[in-house]
Amino acid sequence: MSALDDRQTRSLHPGRARRWAALAVLMFPVLLVAVDNTVLSFAVPSLSRALEPSSTQLLWIIDIYPLVLAGLLVPMGSLGDRIGRRKLLLIGGAGFGLVSAAAAFVPDATLLIAARALMAVFGSMLMPATLSLIRNIFTDDSERRTAIAAWASAFSGGAALGPVLGGWLLEHFWWGSIFLMAIPMLLPLIVLGPFLIPESRDPHPGRMDPPSILLAVGTLLPIVYGIKSVTGAGSLAVGIVAISLGLACGTTFVRRQLRSSSPMLDVRLFCNPVFSAALVVNLFSVFALVGFIYFLSQHLQLIAGLSPMEAGLFMIPGLVLTVVFGFVAVPLVKRIGPAGVVMTGLAFNAMAYALVVVLGRSGSLGGLLLAFCVLGIGVGLAETISNDLALSAVPPARAGSAAAISETAYEVGSVLGTAVLGSILNAAYSRGVAIPSSLDADAADRARQTLAGANDVADSMPSGSAASGLAESAARAFDGGVTITAAIAVGLMVAALLVVRFALRDRIPEAGNPLEPPQETGPGTSEEPGVEALSDPPTEEIPKNLTIQ
After folding, report:
1. What is the CB neighbour count within 10 angstroms for residue 249?
2. Within this chain, do residues 183 and 46 fall inside the same structural domain, yes or no?
3. Which residue from 357, 444, 466, 533 lies 20 to 30 Å from 124 (Cα-Cα)?
4. Which candidate, 468, 435, 463, 469, places its Cα nearest to that of 449?
5. pLDDT digits over 471-495, tens only?
6. Is residue 223 included in any domain, yes or no?
7. Quick one: CA dihedral 7, 11, 12, 17, positive or negative?
8. Are residues 183 and 40 in the same domain?
9. What are the φ/ψ torsions at residue 368 (nearest 5 degrees)?
10. What mean pLDDT do residues 62-75 have?
11. Domain end point (choices 166, 186, 206)
12. How far apart are CA 276 and CA 342, in angstroms?
């Protein structure tokens, strides 16, 4: 073998030490995005005092990031396939760090909204790139599952770190300090990424398709916005119009991709039931986790009286279990099979919400902690294997598209977890709280809207039975709403489990067998006419459709 051939082989198959070093570097942007998702809510009080945003501006400060991110994940995943996933990751990391530093010092709410939107643009470059690079760096099944477990655990670790680190920063510094966290978290990626992470791309990406990019954004952004509007405090009519617009754009997008000889997104991926079932698991697991954290964080701070940092520490055991069982899923899949692990995870999610149904009205902190720990086990099991299923079901050259779709399921699940479960909880609370007749219309409306509003109104009232009665009624109404919400979540988790059981039945190997995609049969030879079989090339050969530099 010539020296050139030897260098090419080492580049195509990075050594074990370099593979795991590259994974360590890839964890930093994942950790950052997870922290960013949870830390902002803890900064809202101090941010509101400093910038004095209107209620509409405050809503957009929180919502603009997931809306823009959801709309751009698929185009950015396709762009990474074309220009290089490492290159896109480094551009996203540098841009995210710079914009985060600027956001820490903005003088008004309008500029903060703009900064958050720009952060979402660069954030959409980070997540699909990390997952697709892992798919191409780790070709061994067992190593890949472990690497994906680490990737999923970084999300959980970030979710745990966000409240604790955010609470500490806000107790010692100003609200902008939460955005400056991005700089030290991204420095390892910027400095070490070019040396440790091998470049990969689709060698035959075709031309860029601006109309498809616009249609992809026009599909996801209006749908996500419409869901939040319909299930939240927005206009029902506006929400329906937005969802209708998104569906129309989505239909046009799919038709355009099917007609294109080099589509931006291969929508035929959805013909693979394993891939589609994995997306369902991603969506519902994140839905369960985010929805649980939504009401748990409020109960801990507004009813139990814990500080933000104490509330964050309370959540750590459940989030640690998410990390631990993400890694436990790797050897467990050899015993009960990928489908068994995924369905076990969904069953644990349902059990967690069932515990809340039983114990929720008592407001028991021990019961809530137990339920959150059970949920952590379920999310850890389900997420690790579902991501592996999604990536293993497609060839390496399509990893960017698959990762982008998987990330979109994450974001939609996150939005739905807050929007659906949160709106149901708020509606139940509003119906259940008893408002003292002595309150004026504005105060009564504030107390009826949210638990935090009721506590603020009670604190502003003269000490006496009316104030204590309002606070107690608000707490009972909130915990009663949590019980109703949890019962609905149990039904959704059971439904997801049944759907996944049907979709994965007899389609993936059972316990003891590695997860292998079907053998390549070539275009037009799959079971469905006109659909190319989705498979990886034999693992002992260098993939012909993959370019790694």
Report:
1. 20
2. yes
3. 533
4. 435
5. 888 888 888 888 888 888 898 888 8
6. yes
7. positive
8. yes
9. -65, -40
10. 76
11. 206
12. 13
Q: Domain range holding 84? A: 12-139+175-206
Distance from the first to the final alpha carbon of the chain: 19
Which pLDDT score, from 0 to 100, does residue 354 have? 92
d(CA 512, CA 17): 27
DSSP-derived letter for residue 537 is P
Do residues 185 and 233 share a domain? no
| Closest to 104 in 3D by CA, of 168, 15, 36, 30 | 36
On whether both 200 and 243 belong to a single domain, the answer is: no
CA gap 196, 469 in Å, rounded: 61
Question: Same domain for 131 and 213?
Answer: no
- Where are the extended beta strands (E) located within 64-151? none
Report d(CA 319, CA 251) in Å as an integer: 38
Please give the C-alpha separations between residue 425 and each of 115, 178, 300, in angstroms, as whole numbers: 31, 28, 16
42 is written with which tokens?
């803890």
508 phi, psi to nearest 5 deg: -130, 155
Q: Which residues face 547 on adjacent strands?
A: 201
**Element spanning 469, H or E:** helix 465-504
Q: Do residues 291 and 417 touch, judged by C-beta distance below 8 A? A: yes
- Residue 229 domain-assigned (yes or no): yes
Alpha helix positions (H), 360-421: 365-392, 399-416
Are 123 and 218 contained in the same domain?
no
Segment 393-445, tens digit of pLDDT: 666 666 666 666 776 677 677 666 766 777 777 778 878 888 877 777 777 87
Amino acid found at 196: L
What span, in angstroms and rounded, lies between the C-alpha atoms of 230 and 294? 18
38 with 417: CB under 8 angstroms? no
Tell me the C-alpha distance between 135 and 224, whole Å: 28
pLDDT band for 544, please (50, 70, 90 cuts). very low
* HSE-up of residue 40 (Cα within 13 Å, Cβ side): 22
DSSP 503-528: HHTTTS--TTS---PPPP--TT-SSS
CB atoms within 10 A of CB 145: 26
Mean pLDDT confidence for 440-458: 77
Orientation angle between helical segments 308-359 and 273-298, nearest 10 degrees: 110
Q: Are residues 25 and 39 in the same domain?
A: yes
Q: Does residue 509 sit within a domain?
A: no
How far is 398 from 132, CA to CA, in rounded Å? 8
Task: Examine residue 31 and state whether it is found in any structural domain, yes or no.
Answer: yes
Number of domains in the chain: 2
Give the integer Cα–Cα distance in Å for 252 and 183.
Answer: 40
